[in-house]
Design goal:
The chain contains twelve helices and 15 strands. The protein has 364 residues and is α/β, with parallel strands linked by helices. The strands form three sheets. A seven-stranded parallel sheet has the order 3-2-1-6-7-8-9. The protein has a six-stranded parallel sheet with strand order 12-11-10-13-14-15. Helix 9 links the parallel strand 13 and strand 14. Helix 1 crosses helix 12. The two termini are 16 Å apart.
């Protein structure tokens, strides 16, 4: 296996792909990113070409345009410029968004991969709207664990449970302090800023009041947002990014508390041993990751009421502190994490050897 392919339609996929690029390079495999336009500017790799080119140079990635592989239909016949063989990674079947137009844009349906083995990864909870569209068209769909799909009835022999590469290669707290200019003596906490689409679902003044109360409790407040979000809140430090390594995971290494709003970040908190509070401001949201909502590790609040100092202190006091062993126990029970890239690369090599008859040694 000389090279592996990655369908690349969002700059956010770097946090999932780079650990695989590193692992395959270690085994002598070249990585090829096939690039397509994304209708969402914050995610579009073509718009963020400077950033992508920097990563490509650092990790020796070959960048190819989608047009090079695009199949076209002429007089009811399908013509393909190039077909793919070997291993092809993608994220959520390359469907980036819940609309039908997002489904139609997927490279999965426009590139000849009949001679390839396709492995889909997952980004956050996006598989909730992509799974039914692509499960019949991929060979494997990888999840953090079976709990992430059994809960929603997404049952298939194509499901595999090898964890998430997002959790690979995350630096420790010391590296986080240095990278973000944080003092090791401060009591840090992380607010994951509410998504822009929830802007009308809560009182913005409550957000500022929450920040004030946290500071009165001695916390150094870090506000993390994504580039697509309008940030209403200024903390002691603001971070806006969504690339590799995953900044939320980096920051959580140094934080004693995390607060978020109708987010699926609870698994990141469990992984880093961080107590968390979720203000549920999305009335339409499907209950997500309920198996991780363990009261001693996490507090759930319906809506986003104004929170007093006494109330917040009580919420925090009801949860186990940072790095209590029960966080790692929950992670081990519900999340198959650690060295996901090597495990996926092992699977890829095994598939390739069986399919193409190569005598390359398989790493067990």
């Amino acid at each position: 296996m000389e090279q592996v392919y990655f369908l690349f339609s969002s700059i956010t996929f770097l946090q999932l792909y780079i650990p695989l690029v590193i692992e395959h390079a270690r085994r002598g495999h070249k990585s090829v990113f096939i690039i397509r336009k994304n209708q969402k500017p914050y995610a579009c790799p073509i718009i963020h070409d400077t950033l992508l080119n920097a990563y490509a140079k650092t990790y020796n990635i070959n960048l190819k345009p989608f047009s090079k592989y695009l199949c076209t239909c002429k007089k009811k016949r399908i013509f393909c410029k190039h077909s793919l063989s070997g291993i092809v990674y993608m994220v959520d079947g390359d469907i980036y968004g819940p609309s039908q137009s997002n489904v139609q844009e997927s490279m999965l349906f426009h590139i000849d991969m009949s001679n390839a083995t396709t492995i889909s990864l997952t980004e956050n909870m996006n598989y909730m709207w992509t799974y039914s569209h692509c499960i019949e068209h991929v060979d494997y769909y990888n999840f953090i664990s079976s709990h992430y799909v059994d809960t929603y009835g997404f049952i298939s022999t194509k499901n595999i449970y090898l964890g998430s590469t997002k959790y690979d290669n995350i630096p420790g707290a010391t590296a986080t302090y240095k990278k973000y200019g944080l003092s090791e003596t401060d009591k840090h906490m992380l607010i994951l800023h509410p998504k822009h689409k929830y802007a009308d679902n809560y009182n913005h003044q409550h957000l500022h009041e929450l920040c004030r109360v946290l500071k009165s409790l001695g916390y150094y407040v870090i506000v993390k947002s994504r580039p697509k979000s309008n940030t209403f809140l200024t903390g002691d430090k603001n971070v806006s990014s969504d690339i590799y390594p995953n900044e939320t995971l980096e920051l959580l290494q140094a934080c004693k508390l995390c607060i978020f709003f109708s987010s699926s970040a609870i698994d990141e908190c469990i992984f880093t041993g961080t107590p968390s509070i979720n203000f549920d401001i999305d009335p339409k949201a499907v209950q997500r990751l309920t198996f991780l909502k363990i009261p001693s590790l996490h507090t759930a609040v319906n809506g986003f009421p104004k929170v007093t100092r006494k109330q917040l202190k009580s919420m925090i006091g009801a949860m186990l502190p940072k790095h209590d062993p029960r966080y790692s126990q929950a992670a081990n029970k519900y999340m198959s994490l650690g060295d996901t890239a090597p495990r996926l690369a092992d699977l890829s090599e095994t598939i390739f050897n069986l399919k193409y008859g190569t005598k390359t040694q398989i790493i067990s």
